[in-house]
Amino acid sequence: MHRAFSHDAASVGIVGAGTIGSSWAALFLATGRRVTVVDPDPQSMTRLRPSIEAVAGDLAALGVGDPRSHWDKLTAAGGDWSALATVDLVQENGPEALAAKRGIYASIEAVVRPETLIASSTSGLMPSDLQEGARHPGRILIGHPFNPPHLLPLVEIVPGRQTAPEAVAAAEALYRAVGKVPVVLRREIAGHLATRLVAALWREAVYLVEQGVCDLGDIDRAIAAGPGPRWAVLGQGLSYHLGGGAGGLERFLEVFDAPIRSWWDDLGTPVFDTASKKTLVAGAEALEASVGGRDALVRMRNEALLAVLRAPGPLSPRTGLEERAPD
């Protein structure tokens, strides 16, 4: 059955008011949408408004809007699922456990309209698994952001076996409407797209630390001072394309075919045991302390991300946001 899913989502429901959910709420609120947040945890509800206030300056600096100008459009509903009855989109941010998600989806579907789109922020679960037992599985898909969602533009849209094409098109349109850069996967796979890429890099980083080649500080400094800035502008494909000179990627692959294969063959498999994790945690805590603690680290990260996102580039994600407020 074809359903008329909203391509604008003037009213958005957020399920789960933790780090990801509150960041999503801030983004949607900043663009002038009505936002209803459901989370049965009273502490999460208490933290919701301060969490939005904490990132309001970032959103204003990006030109997205200031969520503090739209407090009248925010509803903190606590555990009242019925508050979602009229929303166009539900962005679910519940625990990363299939049984828990299915319970959440049952509660959502009991109150929302058939044409309400349901997107999960899950970083690893499969959409087809989420659809099992659903009343209207065709409207369920993955809308996975990168943290923090209010700043990083990427959202991975992953349809399941029963997801309607109309639902995918609507999700792509509505995420674009709030300044996101949607990437639609052609088929579902564990970890989606970007998370798999990050996991591959992290796997080798852990291996190098375990082998005594370097410590976590060396890893992070190497990424931040080397490939990291380049990735923010071009990504790996275009970086290699330019690395091939006039011959482009074709020439690059011709010249580096053997070296790349030898590096792939030499990549390791980490032990990732308790001792390894303790070393990694100690490394992260040392890096955090070196910049003045957690609050300073978050502030410096966000300021740097803002500078990158405001800079025009070949794949610049944010343009024309001033024209994207809902009707």
From TrEMBL:
Keyword set for this entry? Oxidoreductase
List, in alphabetical order, the Gene Ontology terms for molecular function in this entry. NAD+ binding; oxidoreductase activity, acting on the CH-OH group of donors, NAD or NADP as acceptor
Check the UniProt entry and state the signal peptide residues, or none. Answer: none
Q: Which GO terms of type biological process are on file?
A: fatty acid metabolic process
3-hydroxyacyl-CoA dehydrogenase C-terminal domain span: 191-259
Q: Which Pfam families match?
A: 3HCDH, 3HCDH_N
Task: List residues of the 3-hydroxyacyl-CoA dehydrogenase NAD binding domain.
Answer: 12-186
Tagged with keyword Oxidoreductase: yes
Keyword Ion transport listed? The answer is: no
Which SUPFAM superfamilies did the record assign? 6-phosphogluconate dehydrogenase C-terminal domain-like, NAD(P)-binding Rossmann-fold domains
Give the protein's recorded name: 3-hydroxyacyl-CoA dehydrogenase
